[in-house]
Amino acid sequence: MASTDQLTSRVDASGKPHKRAELYGPANIPWVYWVLGFILLLMPVVASNFVLFQIFGWAFILGMVALSLMFLGGYGGMVSLVQMSVAGLAAYMVAVFGHSGVVQISLGWPWWLTVPVALAIATLFGTITGALAVRTAGIYTIMITLAIATAFFYFVRQNYGVFNGFNGFNQVLPPQLFGVDWRQPVPIYYLTLFFATLAYFVVIYVARTPFGLALQGVRDNPRRMAALGFNVTAHRIAAYAFASFIAAVAGVLLVWLNAQISPGTVAVGPAIDILVIAVIGGIRHPIGPFIGALIFVVLRTFALDVLVLVGIPGERFQLLVGLAFLAIVFWSPDGILGLWPRFRDRMRAASSLTAERDRRL
Amino acid sequence: MAVSVAQRLSAAGTANALELRGVTRMFGALVALTDVSLTVRPGERRAVLGSNGAGKTTLFNCITGDFLPTSGTIRLFGEDVTEFPAYERIRRGLRRTYQISLLFNGLSVLDNIYLACRGVSRGRFSLIRPRRNEALMHSAEQLATAVHLIDVRDTKVAELSYGQQRQLEIALALAGAPRFILFDEPAAGLSPTERRELIEILTNLPAHIGYIIIEHDMDVALRVSESVTMMHNGRIFKEGRPSEIESDPEVQELYLGGGHG
């Protein structure tokens, strides 16, 4: 398990001496974004439906939930294990207020009413959790949010009146908007890609707004922030509200992708998976959670086959995830993201050495 | 509304900038401050002297609201702020610097100052990115210029020299419209040149801004203050003009005697 210090390690807003906000022309977009955007947009041309749906769909959604954790942990210094519960509550609310196979509970509201209500309720839940958690720090924040996540899991499993207990809800389908069946692999790929990208850029943008800057100030130095006129507690709670909204959006997408929601989705295991995803990817930058989610989903999907191949029972896929987690925490505490600066520095060192040698020759 | 503003202004004109009555602060059994009463007029510049453990920084922490006094009252410009959280006092014109710089190391110089400006104005929760031509960004740049940090405004604080960090510490306290500032050993660790710059910054502050300065360097302390409070063992021990304090035999024995004389 990574220490709290690593999880709350410092993130600078931009990573580099930043350019000012008004520089938004296409010329200022880094080439990496062009390449990545191109690949992601054209993915359906080459990738199978299975990959689009089971790999990327899930990676974008889990990445968004982990992104909400990254926002709290990376910018706010608060590690919350309740993000999956927030997403799960949004998913449940979509099923309860909208349509599902459980007709005796679902109210059958139209999607344009169901979705905002689901987002609002889940965001409120995350905000209240935040209000309870922000008065503590470090390990105690983790414990409180874990306790709430656990309580939420047992509550939905035992409550049959609203959450339909052990069975949860099935046949929760996305609306047939614009004549598109959004649960087909290609549409849902673009739908989840769109919201994941949106969430990513919103987080990047917010990090440099007064709210985001002040949040990083609160992370680095809460006492000083109070001595500058900031209400530190209110700022932390607002961060929970913001992060919970992102998790809630992911939750709506999750129930549409999965077509069902049951207690298993919001159990303690998945709650910790989100932390694992964020740590594997790296919480210094909003791209980290998505990298982590992709690795996690790939491992989850294919570990079974690999394990069976070498003669280990397939249900042990968590073993591979665990080993990957261990290796990353051990060799690169900043996650996969942490490998990049190291690689770059090594390349620079190598090139300066060759330059040195060339000069001598 | 206009009436209340006028009332507040007239109140600010007559009330003392800072008024402490019987402030005591205990940490468990340890009494860090004992029955401290202190009055500072608006615009007055006061030095607080005393050996280590005299309670100077504890006094600052009580005034800022970093923690509450065990007993006693604190009035800021006539208003009882004893129970106020720190941020409420700051929004009323109080500022402070810290003995050990408390800065935001991951952010640039300008972002640090911008945060300080934002803290005492509206839009602390704003989700709109600051623009270079924004008024607050402007005042942040002016402050950076005032403390000689404009050339390193985009440098991350972690990369600044010690002296520059101390200057930034002061810039943060000057943000917005300060009315009363607490300086906690601003000259500690500065080079002679940096000390001169510091004295210049302090003496050039607008006349309506009062301050209390904790300073071990008598040379700095007596040059930038018009009155002096001596503390010893958590109590106020003597008050007077710099010249009186300097020549007081008891003070000399207690404070100046050891090495400073």
UniProtKB/TrEMBL annotation, chain A:
It is found in: Cell membrane. InterPro entries: ABC_transp_permease, LivM-like. GO terms for molecular function: branched-chain amino acid transmembrane transporter activity. It comes from the Bacteria. It is a multi-pass membrane protein. Its main location: membrane. This is Branched-chain amino acid ABC transporter permease. The keyword Transmembrane applies. CDD domains: TM_PBP1_LivM_like (cd06581). Keywords: Cell membrane, Membrane, Transmembrane, Transmembrane helix. The chain crosses the membrane at residues 29-47, 53-72, 84-105, 111-132, 139-156, 188-216, 237-257, 263-283, 290-312, 318-340. One of its GO terms (cellular component) is plasma membrane.
